[in-house]
Every structure is written in C-alpha cells, then in structure tokens.
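=== RUN LOG ===
request id: a7f3
mode: sequence -> structure
chains: 1
length: 494
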Amino acid sequence: MSDKNFEARHLETLDRDLDRLSSLEMATAYAARPLVGPTISLVFIALAGLAAAVFMGETTDTLVVVVAAAFGAYMALNIGANDVANNMGPAVGANALSMGGAIAIAVIFESAGALIAGGDVVSTVAKGIVAPESIGSASVFIWVMMAALLSSALWVNVATWIGAPVSTTHSVVGGVMGAGIAAAGFGSVSWSTMSAIAASWVVSPMLGGLIAAGFLWFIKARIIYQPDKIAAARTWVPVLVGIMAGVFSAYLALKGLKKIIRIDFGSALLIGAGVGIVVWLVLIPVIRKKSEGLENRNKSLKILFGIPLIVSAAFLSFAHGANDVANAVGPLAAIVQASTTGDFTASVSIPFWVMTIGAFGISFGLFLFGPKLIRMVGSQITKLNPMRAYCVALSAAVTVIIASWLGLPVSSTHIAVGGIFGVGFFREWYSERRLVKARGEVPDRPVIASEERRRRKLVRRAHLTTIVAAWIVTVPAAALLSAIIFLGIRAVAG
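=== RESULT ===
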C-alpha cells in the first residue's frame, strides 16, 4: 500500500473517530444542560449559608441562621425565576429587547434597586401579618419565619414549573399567616391586612388591565388610525413618553427611595410632574428628527416606541428590586434579629449581608430560570408590539401610584399580567367593533362563522385559566404548606 493511500485511510479513520467524539460531546452537553441551573443554584445556596456562618460567628443559634439563609437564598432564586418576568416579558415579547439584553438589564437594575433602596417593607412582612407578641417566644417566632420562607419558596417554584406568574408577596404573606395560625391560632393574624390583600387579587389586575387598555385606545385613536401616522406620532409620542417619565419618577420617589429619603405623596407627584414636563419638551425635537424619512405605516411607529419601552423595563426592575427583595430577606432578617438579640417584637433592620443574598439570589434566579416565564408573559398570553408593551409598562406604574393614593396593597405581578390581558381583550373588542362597522358599510361582506371567530381570539384562554387559578390558591396553598412545615419543625425541635 502506497504512503498516500495509507495516509488517506488514516485520515478517514481519524475523521470518523473525531465525529464520534464530537457527537458524544454534544450529547453529553445536551444531557447535562438541565443540570447546570440546579447545580449553580445549590452552590449559591451553600455560599449563602457559609456567609451566614461567617457573619454570625460562633453562637448558639448559628446553625439556625445558616439554615434560614439557605432558605432565603432559595426564595430569592425563585423570585428571580418568576416575578422578574413581569417587568421584562413585554419588552421581549415586543422584540424591543433580546432575551440576553433583558436579562442583563434586569440583573443590573434589580440588584441596584435591592441594594440601594431595598428593605423598606421588611417590617410589614415580618410583623404586619401575625402579631409577634402572640407567638410567645423567640424560638417559636424563628420557626414561624423559617416555615414561611420555605413554604413560599416551594410554592413559587411549583408555579414557575407550571408556567404561572404568581405574586411572591402573596406567597410570603400566605406562608407567614399559615405558620402563625399553627403557632398561635387564628387570633394572631391581622385579618384586616389579609382582607386588603384578598381585595388586591381583584383590584390589581382590573386596574392594570383597564389602564393599559385605555392607553392602547388612545394610541390607536390618536396615532395608529390617523391618516398621517408620523405627524400624529410627532405630536403625541413626546407627550406619552413625558407621562411615562413623570409617572416613573413619582413611582420611584414614592416607593423606591424610602431608604435614602422620605418623600410624601404630594411631593412625589410634584417631582413626577416636573420630570414629565422636562422630558416632554426635550423629546419634541428628538422625535421630530428621529421620525424624518419614516414611512407612513405602523412599523415606523414601533421604532419610536422601542427605546421608551426599554427604559420603562429598567425602571420597573429597579423598583421591583427595591420592594420585592423583602419577600426573600424579610423573614430572614427577622430570624437574624431574633437570634442575635432575643427581641422579636421590635422593628426589623436588615444587615447588608442579608440584603446581598436577596439581591444576588434574584439575579441568579432570573439568569438561570427566568427565560421560561419571560417568554410566556411576553408572547404566549397575547401578541405584543412596542406600543402594546408600552401600555402594559405604563399601566403598572400608574396603577401603583393610584393604589398608593387609595391606600390599597397591590401586587406588581397581578398588575403587569392584568395589563397584558387588558391589552389583549381590548384588541379583541376593538377588532370585533371594526368588523361590525365594516359589515354595516359593505352589506354583502362575507360573514365569518362563529367557530372561526372563536379560533381567532387574541388572548389564549388556557393561560388565563391557569394564571387566575394559581392566583386564587397562592395564599391558601402557601399557608397550608407553611403550617405543615411549622408543625414538622416544632416536632423535630421539641
């Protein structure tokens, strides 16, 4: 055999072997991919426990705090996986942001919100649902908070697995309530607080949906269905973005910066009005220049709404990090305080290392597990474009401002998802209305069969049923699970 033939056969054999190795590597990587997220999560939970051990030092309750820190880290991961989708889903579904870009923005702004302005609502989570003085002892109070942490985290994990965006706030509330009842009976619960939370199940999504639908109606009437869309956009887009800037400024002043400076409701509205007017005036020439050369069609309008939508997603993430980090670290902070001081009735302060666990946990949870819920919220409930997604984002901030004025506790999850449903149902109603009008103008227009019209519904009813069911059972499910866990802890601890 010549050297050339031998070399050719040798190279052919080598290529086959390399192909087998490549296929094996691809198969291994594919099989191992589902394990990456859980593995990193376990490492983070272990590091959270280690951090607790380091900062607590050698005390009699160090092990308790280490376990509580692990539970808090687990809850923070689940908040990132489930809750953050409500802020980023509309922007991703409208193709204003890629999945990678959305995750990067959310990680930065969620962490900034948690570390800079987080922790204001921790006392409500730790003290406002169950009266601490009814618990009896610091050890029982610690068990209540640990059961609440673990049960709420497990419930949010289940909800994420089935693809239902639920309120992590309601999960923690249910967890604290269930363990509190198991520890001290029904009289320990502040039923007025629970009644307000139950009312928010209806108020939050309805307000979010109505406000989002109202803005979409305005955009359709004043911009989309105008003969000269670009001229209309030059007039109204600066106004709409100015409203958005003003609302978000008031929102952040009122809800997101309490740790730095206390601002009353009237002052927050004045700040918002000032910022809104400035942004409106600045954007008039900017939008005029950006709209030059654009064709008179809807695709051109999407360009003008893209950047405001991205900015709104970033602001919502900051505010979410500032407020909802308490769901992960509120019970943990209460456990740390009760363990170190023995006082479980005083107001709760949050150590920086506890807040860091919450901030990083939310970021890791979003990065590792968030895309599933982001896709569902952004594209599977109803189809979003930048204008519709803008209405959802703006309705979230407006609803929180209105709820704060009325003194109603609301869920950011319920508001955002309600806004998406509101936009979808409004589009259904508007399309039906235009169809009836067109049939009146053209009597011989073919009538679409009722079955075909049902098939063309713009909101997926299956998701509506799943999400509403998950919302209804969140508090009772978390409460029942928490009561069982508390009784188990008490039995083991004696």
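=== NOTES ===
Confidence is low (pLDDT under 50) at residues 24-32.
The radius of gyration is 26 Å.
=== END ===
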